[in-house]
Amino acid sequence: MQTTIEKKDVRKLSLNELKDFFTQRGEKSFRAQQVYEWLWKKSAKDFDQMTNLSISTRELLKEHFTINHIRVDNMQRSEDGTIKNAVKLYDDLIVESVLIPTKDRITACVSSQVGCSLDCKFCATARLKRMRNLSPDEIYDQVVAIKQQAELFFNRPLTNIVFMGMGEPLLNYGNVLEAINKITSPDGLNMASKRITLSTVGIAKMIKKMADDEVKFNLAVSLHDAINETRSAIMPINETNPLEELAEALIYWYKKTKRKVTYEYVVWKGINDTPEHVQALVKFCKHIPCKVNLIEYNPIDEGVFQQGSPEAVQLYQTTLERNGIVARIRKSRGKDIDAACGQLANKS
């Protein structure tokens, strides 16, 4: 009885490994460069798209490899133009990604893990167990899908990428960095690193590692409170990464990179909407040059988390600006399709 060999995803191979594959079979090594370009520059999903390869070469590739590209299983469009994709992976697991259009930019919000292990109390994704990390090509594919949607539906290019979808990027560090490398490489999508922002709950040792690795993209921290007791109650990660350690890591980041950090901050009624919390944030912001995005909250149920009053949000903005800290109030987009911050996987 003939046994079938499980084919390897061709995108797991480096350029040199592809060269070895071809030369070992008596083929010219430059075929590897052609295949690599089809995979990462032209985002080919099928070997038959590689039209500058002979049919026999394409059949050779099909015999040994597969391309485990993602598939947009369901696409929803919001009244404000936002698009949410339910993305099916090769093993039938689902993640979500979002295209966010504004007047001067189109942003791809991408996921880095299936589910999440961090249990932030206000986030829908946290209600899913973490099933696995996404591979570099699965992250890359989300960006490609949104890039194509930007061109198809808006006739505009993709301008920005934020790692603010499902999962904690710093708990999938190697794969996220490799994906960013493919996205920014001239051999890939050739996007500028300064157009990419990685958002983390604040894992101190990994923030230091990013600084040591001299990454070129931007850093955002999902902060939401600058008092340890309150932050630990809503974000359990704070128990092992308290604000003092986070501040130390961010000071290290700024010393090494000279790049401002953005703090993402939601004001909740009865949780962090008092002057005491405002003053604590002002004090935390004094550690390094930064800016604060005051984000509108998107309820995930009828629970304890409710948007703070406009007066409370305004108190934050006014106090921060009075202390020389840039603060912007960010209206959420895509709420009607559960595509806004904290809502991903709410109804999947």
- Total helical elements: 10
Sheet with most strands: strand arrangement: 3-4-5-6-9-10-11-12-13-14
Instruction: Give the CA-based shape.
Output: elongated
Q: Using only CA atoms, what is the Rg?
A: 22 Å
User: Which secondary-structure class do the elements indicate?
Assistant: alpha/beta
Question: Architecture of the largest domain, CATH level 2?
Answer: Alpha-Beta Barrel
Look at the structure and give the mean pLDDT. 92
Helix content: 25-40%
Instruction: For the record, give the distance between the C-alpha atoms at the N and C termini, rounded to a whole number.
Output: 42 Å
Low-confidence stretches: none
CATH superfamily caption of the largest domain: Aldolase class I
CATH class of the largest domain: Alpha Beta
What name does CATH use for the topology of the largest domain? Answer: TIM Barrel
Our estimate of the beta-strand percent is 15-25%
Order of helices and strands: EHHHEEEEEEEHEHEHEHHEHEHE
**How many domains, in number, for the residues?**
2
